[in-house]
Design brief:
This protein is an alpha/beta fold. It is built from ten helices and eight strands. The protein has a single domain, classed as Alpha/Beta hydrolase fold, catalytic domain (Rossmann fold, 3-Layer(aba) Sandwich).
Length: 318
């Protein structure tokens, strides 16, 4: 356990300047982009601009020929901040560890496009992959923070629209409860170097725009029926006010008969995986995530016979 590394990162996060009052959304976005630009992006990836479902997507590939798996990635940012580029540390590490290509989606953000616009975009992107002939057994959803929540809500909306489920999903520190009723919202107050209950108020107001948070697409950790969901991996740190978003979703998954791995790391902050290359626990968590995904993606030809791990040529050249 890298106690020194964890302490350094905690100190750094607490030293981030905090504005004395409300910020303009443009300033919030610029500040978030600047912070995420300091994350280590792995070598050995290629990025090109692409499109899925009418939205821009950053296509991230390994240096060699991609394997058969396709990662549909959703960035974080409380549904109001961020872009595919701000999540490139995590996306790139998933690509290098799996050998697969990833589409990181530039879904619409609030307040310009409040709930559920982002979910509409993620489902449209998934539908576009299916229409391009990518087998759902080769597609996985992954995301961090708000994007981690989108891995779950995209499945909910896709199921409602009669689409097949993806092979698996991985959520890093997901935001899964707009009602903010988890006990960790209070028990981790002051321990979480990023968030407080109060810090969520302005972004939640932008995202929900007056809509009821007590619905499954806004608060799946407390409202969703997860029946028929694919296997899921939830990774979260003990220092997060959002810890109980993951623990309660895992309990709902268990109750619905869904395979779920709840992976909790001690004394690390929100989306600690973004600190890969600087924090041992981040690299180890990403190794576990890649292993989990590799267990659940199979070549379509193998589905009727003996399953083999996905490898070889990919259907994602666009």
């Amino acid at each position: 356990m890298s106690r020194h590394q964890r302490a350094e990162i905690d100190t750094m996060l607490r030293a981030q300047p905090k504005p004395p009052g409300p910020q303009a959304i443009e300033d919030m976005r610029a500040g978030f982009a600047a912070m995420m630009a300091g994350m280590v992006v792995p070598a050995g990836i290629r990025t090109t601009q692409s499109e899925l479902g009418g939205r821009r997507a950053l296509l991230v590939k390994p240096e060699g020929e991609p394997g058969d798996g396709v990662i549909l990635y959703f960035h974080g940012g409380s549904f109001v901040l961020g872009a595919p580029e701000t999540a490139l540390s995590v996306t790139g590490n998933l690509v290098t560890r799996t050998g697969w290509a990833a589409y990181s989606l530039d879904y619409r953000l609030a307040p310009e496009h409040p709930f559920p616009a982002g979910i509409e975009d993620t489902v449209a992107a998934y539908r576009a992959l299916l229409e391009r002939g990518v087998d759902p057994s080769a597609i996985v959803f992954a995301g961090d923070s708000a994007g981690g929540g989108l891995t779950v809500t995209t499945c909910l909306r896709a199921r409602a629209e009669g689409l097949p489920m993806p092979a698996a999903l991985v959520a890093f520190s997901p935001g899964l409860d707009a009602t903010r009723t988890g006990e960790s919202m209070d028990t981790k107050a002051g321990i979480d170097p990023f968030f407080t209950r109060e810090s969520f108020v302005p972004t939640s107001a932008m995202y929900l725009a007056g809509q009821d948070p007590h619905q499954e697409l806004a608060s799946p950790a407390v409202c969703a029926d997860l029946s028929g969901f694919p296997p899921m991996l939830l990774q979260v740190g003990t220092n997060e006010v959002l810890l109980d978003d993951s623990t309660r979703l895992a309990a709902r998954a268990w109750g619905a008969g869904v395979d779920v791995v709840l992976d909790v790391t001690a004394d690390v902050p929100h989306v600690f995986q973004a600190f890969a290359g600087r924090l041992e626990e981040a690299d180890q968590a990403l190794d576990r995530a890649a292993f989990f995904l590799g267990q659940h993606v199979r070549r379509p030809a193998d589905q009727a016979g003996q399953a083999k791990p996905a490898s070889g040529a990919s259907a994602v050249s666009r």
